[in-house]
Amino acid sequence: MSNFLYLKYEKSVSVTKALTVRFLTKRFIGEYASNFESIYNKHLCLERKQLNLEIYDPCSQTQKAKFSLTSELHWADGFVIVYDISDRSSFAFAKALIYRIREPQTSHCKRAVESAMFLVGNKRDLCHMREVGWEEGQKLALDNRCQFCELSAAEQSLEVEMMFIRIIKDILINFKLKEKRRPSGSKSMAKLINNVFGKRRKSV
């Protein structure tokens, strides 16, 4: 069985690309151009399923992001929201993005199951420059039904991989919930027939 999983990244500058490259190649590259969007693909096997993972990293410049997430709310199966623990402004932007994603769903982008989301505080190797406390990140995640972790893309390859695995598992759980909530064709038809003929019997 093959599933396409679509993850969307948000913020901050080269942080998201660093995490993605860490996950895909286990290498760390510190500097990336941040003024263009990127799409990465990875094939993996998880829980005996063949998965095709597509990771979309938009242009990371705040002024270009503008919270224009309407189309992404339609197709993204999960969101990874990343901030820099040594940059409070990136945390504020991450918070605004989470509120945008979790705000009451409008009719045109209503979902049967809430999107999986992971809040990540990156650059834990820069604790001596910390501006955002661990407790702040944890509270934001709990209040908005997100998973949360702090890590260092520069120093913790395994933790980066485990973060991705955790959100992918959340997405797979959501797929199962959607299937359970979706009535089968035969059940729907049986219900329709029963409604039609049941009404006729009552009227006779």
TrEMBL record:
The keyword Hydrolase is assigned to this record: yes
Catalytic activity: GTP + H2O = GDP + phosphate + H(+)
EC assignment: 3.6.5.2
Keywords recorded for this protein, A-Z: GTP-binding, Hydrolase, Nucleotide-binding
SUPFAM superfamilies listed in its UniProt record: P-loop containing nucleoside triphosphate hydrolases (SSF52540)
Family assignment from sequence similarity: Belongs to the small GTPase superfamily. Ras family.
Name of this protein: small monomeric GTPase
Source lineage: Eukaryota, Metazoa, Chordata, Craniata, Vertebrata
